[in-house]
Amino acid sequence: MKNFILKGDIAYSENKDKIKTIEQGYLVCEDGICKGAFEKLPKKYEEFPLIDCGEKLIIPGMTDLHTHAPQYACRGFAMDLELLEWLEAYAFPQEARYASLEYADQAYDVLVKDLKKSFTTRAVFFGTLHKEATTLLMDKLEDSGIVTYVGRVSMDRNGGMNLQETSVEKSIADTRDWLQSIEGRYNRTKPILTPRFIPSCSDKVMANLGEIAESQNVRIQSHLSENPSEIEWVKDLVPASSCYANAYEIFGCMGSPEAPAIMAHCVYSDQAEMEIMKKHGAYVAHCADSNMNLSSGIAPATKFLEYGLNMGLGSDIAGGTSLNMMDAIIASIKASKLYWRLIDSNSRILTFEQAFFLATAGGGSYFGKVGAFEDGFDFDALVLDDSETLSPGGLSIRDRLERMCYDSGKCVVAKKFVVGQEIALG
């Protein structure tokens, strides 16, 4: 069905500080594009089929700006370890298993099945260094209807047993071969260059990724200033850099406003790093749950917003333990309270409106006009049954939305649309 109308209780971000609500409103889809949300249906759309959602909530789909697909199978393990220990003991051995296509097929089936039922309509994934397994992941995501970026991970040093490319030349060749093999293959799934982080990529690999990004107009994702030990490591590895972000800049891996990079975490990013990210139009993927789980720290989320950085939320599976982007919203708010209380009393606490914006329109903007119900935006929408969380006295739509996020386990995704296409949830 190309053209249709959803009727129900509508909520979406008008801007980062305001959620617009329409009681029993009309949300119009025409050829996969949102034509707006209305209190009264315009006459020119009266012939469109109407789907009456009753008192269910209708909100934009959510974007997961940073997550590791192969780590979904080991989520919830060893959350008492710090980042670098955890990578070596759990994440890297898990990723090494994707050399087996049989294992990758089974593991990615589980991930994609759960992703389809989730609140996520757009996502940016790390794969592994294995070309075949990464392409298999892309195949499955393409079939799911979710719109994604997927990266084959580059990693030619400090990867440990069975998870390190054998040479600089092999690393570069595998990236180029992978890009060539998938060219023109997908409609909803795009490649993204993925140096895991500077400690895992030699200078030559980083420089070649920067050259590929520019010459082939491919975007880049990586990690930035996540952990104090990692930051010190980068200083030793790239002594010419003024800061971690500048190390990416040196190798041409910070992207551009036309093809922005995603930098995950940014827990310790200071004014200098914020200036570099803003200059390049880079996106901060704020991963509050993972930052706490792996003892990395608390990112200054409200400072990034106030500085005008592009920003969204990430689940960061499996440093984060849940695909649920409503959990990411709440973790972000809680983390900002800790930042205010423990680190900087002059900072501001992230409001619910701001956190909801980051999960929808903030992260969605990485994909273009995505994450709101404005005219001309892609029609990504969730129809949510929050009946188990309602109050006997009744709640406003905005308050229903907030309660639902804090009690998302009782919320049911009744329908899910991506670019106007309904996603099969089963």
How would you describe this protein?
The chain is α/β, with parallel strands linked by helices and 426 residues long. It has helices spanning 83-96, 101-117, 131-144, 168-182, 203-216, 228-237, 244-250, 271-280, 288-293, 301-307, 325-343, 352-364, 397-406, and strands at 3-15, 18-30, 33-38, 50-60, 62-68, 120-126, 147-151, 153-154, 189-191, 194-195, 221-224, 262-265, 283-286, 310-313, 381-385, 412-418, 421-422. The strands form four sheets. Strands 3-2-1-4-15-16-17 form a seven-stranded mixed beta sheet. β16 (412-418) and β17 form a beta hairpin. α2 (101-117) packs parallel to α3 (131-144), α4 (168-182) runs parallel beside α5 (203-216) and α7 (244-250) packs parallel to α8. The longest helix has 19 residues, at 325-343. The two termini are 19 Å apart.
Outline the low-pLDDT stretches: none
Strand content range? 15-25%
- What is the structural class? alpha/beta
Q: What is the mean pLDDT?
A: 96
Number of strands: 17
Shape verdict? globular
Report on the biggest sheet. Answer: 7 strands, mixed
Sequence of strands across the biggest β-sheet: 3-2-1-4-15-16-17
Distance between the termini: 19 Å
Q: How many separate helices? A: 13
Helix share bin: 25-40%
Secondary-structure element sequence?
EEEEEHHEHEEHEEHEHHEHEHHEHHEHEE
Radius of gyration: 21 Å
